[in-house]
Amino acid sequence: MMIEVQEVTKIFKAGEKALDGVSLQVAEGRTLCLIGTSGCGKTTLLKLLNRLVEPSSGRIFIDGQSITDQGVVALRRRMGYVMQKGGLFPHMTVAENVGLIPRLAGWSTERIRARLPEWLERVNLVPTRHFETRYPAELSGGQQQRVGVARALAISPPIILMDEPFGALDPITRRQLQSEFLRLKNELKKTIVFVTHDLNEAFRLGDEIAIMDRGKILQIGSAQSIQQAPATPFVAEFVRSFSA
Amino acid sequence: MKTYTRTLLVFRQFIITVARCGILLGLIGGLATGSGLGKTGESGRIIVGAKPFPEGHLLAEIMASLIERQTNLRVIRRFELGGTSLCFAALQAGEIDLYPEYTGTGLIAILKESATQDPEATYQHVKQAFLTRYQLRWLDPFGFNNTYALAVRADDPDTERLNNISDLHTTSTLRAGFTREFLQREDGYPGLRRHYGLHFPSVQGLEHGLAYKAIQQKQIDILDAYSTDGKLDVYHLKLLNDDQKFFPPYYAAPLVREATLQRYPEFRAPLGSLKGTISEATMRSLNYQVEQAHRPFESVAQEFLQNSGLIGGAATDASPRSTSFPKFLWERRQQTLRLTLRHLQLTGLSALLATLIGIPIGVAISRSRRWAGPTLSGMGILQTIPSLALLGFLIPFLGIGLKPALAALFLYALLPIIQNTYAGIRSIDPSLIEAGQGIGMTASQILWRVELPMATRFILAGVRTATVINIGTATLAAFIGAGGLGEPIFTGLSLNDHFLILAGAVPAAALAVIADLFLHRFERWMTPKGLRLSR
Fold it and tell me: Cβ of B534 and A77 within 8 Å?
């Protein structure tokens, strides 16, 4: 699954350009980290991919097909979506949250029930029987985030979009989840777009990193290339501020 | 089959949320098999109405018993209809066939003409005008003139030297307590004030029964009374002479639909036999019987008809009423049960209807800010219309009885339900809605699986508020003949009978408390467990 963004500009009502002529590609099975200061447009760019936001101009393709060619619901079901605070529904149990998409996609209760342990084990929510019946309010932040990931992976979408998924966690839990993310990434071979504001996280998790500022991508490349040859003074300053 | 089961599951949350609660209420109400209000003119039925004060009630009961005894017609009683305009509108609409009315009221309050002093000329004039204008017929008067009068304490040094209304010029300290109708009517206070040039330091609007209490406790000094009022002697009040002849004659007579007379000519004779049978003294004593001796209207009417030889049979005097409230309540348990069930029916059905219609409206306006403001403020304005005014307004469209009462209660119940549904949905964290969209839920899946379940407790709180308020408001339904626990309350108020007031008020209050507790538990039970944990 290849993602291709061509010359996308997004202007919100206030007239300011949230995104200004952005182009990029993500090859199949690769992880792209979008990083920048708050307000740089990274989250907007992510939401353009699953059409929570529509571009003012420019086009987006997945495997060569424009994302506007298909129904928005069908598009989103091919993309897992993980949000900062998990985005779990508080009135549903863990099992109901994780099984929601399969259920909406027409899976039978028995089939969901049979697969549930596997989905929860994958994100280390064990013993699974214990977690199935919990409500989000009974879980820690890290556990909630694991449920969010499990939900996104449930029907095995080829693409995963993650919007600062570990941003609100304490450092220890964050490192732990990052390790598990790397394990899952190698295991599942998804195409992933990952928004973060933490450069160390981006270096650790991303195959490519795109550094953004004021609606533009300043540099896109591997961790090594960015560290060794920052494209602009802003990138150099940005990298320095994290290594300090 | 699987898909079908799933669809059912999708709807489960909402069906449980709304329908169960509504249906429960509705079922309780539905158990009360309400005697539907039949339109008049159906075969063999005569509907007798009356205004909500003892004399009107008594005259109506006398007419009703006599028709029952002397014809084969079935008589339906719609007493305690809230006032002249309500009664007259109901008569015109054919919701009732007759009610006792006064010539002066017909002339001034209905025909909007100015007062004349000659009783016979007044009667002939209204008779002619009503027949041509409304196809309504005034039958022969009962005999007495119940004119408006002003009354003061007889044994009070401040007022004992007053004899005539014009004497009021010599004092300027009397506080007045007048009925609303008297304050409004051209043949009441406004006209009287101009005619005599009166001025009182304070004029309060009071319910008639309460005004007597107030004058006894010296909270007011002068009130409006009827000259046949049985309470005058009991409260040691004296009437002031209308020395400058302002009040027009008020001869009471049956006011009947001409169409009904032609359809059932047989009931004209019994009413005709009442002509001239009730003098002012007789009327005062009859009023005294019900108001002060607390005897039931039925037995006082019966006794009068027997004493005047209009019906035969030995006087079957009713046993004196109980002096302890619990005993009194026990004696009328059957009546109380019937009224309570009627009350539940009124509130249950209106709340159910408002729930079924209010929730979709609430959802709709939560989608569009543009409609939310106007809808909510429109409903708010509706809420400020006084209940009685709203009931009166609905009569031309829906008649009297169950239908307008349900309609009014429904309108009052709408606002809290719409408001809470709207607030409940707006209170959901927008990022959750976005999460739903992001993972590929459709708008209707988000509504049924996220928004409505999460707003459940708000919505149910709105239903609870609406129901509890409606239990109170539904007492007013008695004024338009819809029955319910308001019946004993308002009869009790006009009779100044505390037991009777309590016989309606206590069950109504109990009903409100029970409904509140029950719906509160229901709310907790319905709230998804995950939401209870997060608070």
Answer: no
Instruction: Name the minimum distance, in Å, from the CA of A232 to any CA of chain B.
Output: 34
Asked if B422 and B517 sit in the same domain, the reply is yes
Please give the tally of structural domains in chain A.
2
Of B440, B441, B533, the CB nearest to A135: B533
B89 shares a domain with B17: no
ipTM computed for the complex: 0.91
Instruction: Please give the residue range of the domain that contains residue B102.
Output: 45-145+250-320
Same domain, B470 and B355: yes
Distance from CA of B370 to the nearest CA of A (A): 18
Inside any domain, residue B38: no
Give residue-wise pLDDT tens across range B302-339: 999 988 888 876 545 445 566 788 888 888 888 889 99
Question: Quick one: how far is CA A84 from the chain centroid?
Answer: 9
pLDDT value for B459: 95
B77: β partners: B48
Q: What are B's interface residues with A at a Cβ cutoff of 8 A?
A: 2-3, 6, 431-432, 434-442, 445, 449-450, 453-454, 528-531, 533-534
Asked if B440 and A73 count as a contact pair (C-beta separation under 8 A), the reply is: yes
Q: What is the pLDDT of residue B321?
A: 61
B172 and B128 in a common domain: no
| CATH number of the domain to which A65 belongs | 3.40.50.300
DSSP helix/strand/coil, B178: strand
Cα dihedral B36, B41, B45, B47 sign? positive
Give the domain range for residue A129. Answer: 87-156
φ and ψ at residue A178, rounded to 5 degrees: -60, -45
Of residues A56, A79, A77, the one with CA closest to residue A3: A79
Residue B245 lies in a domain: no
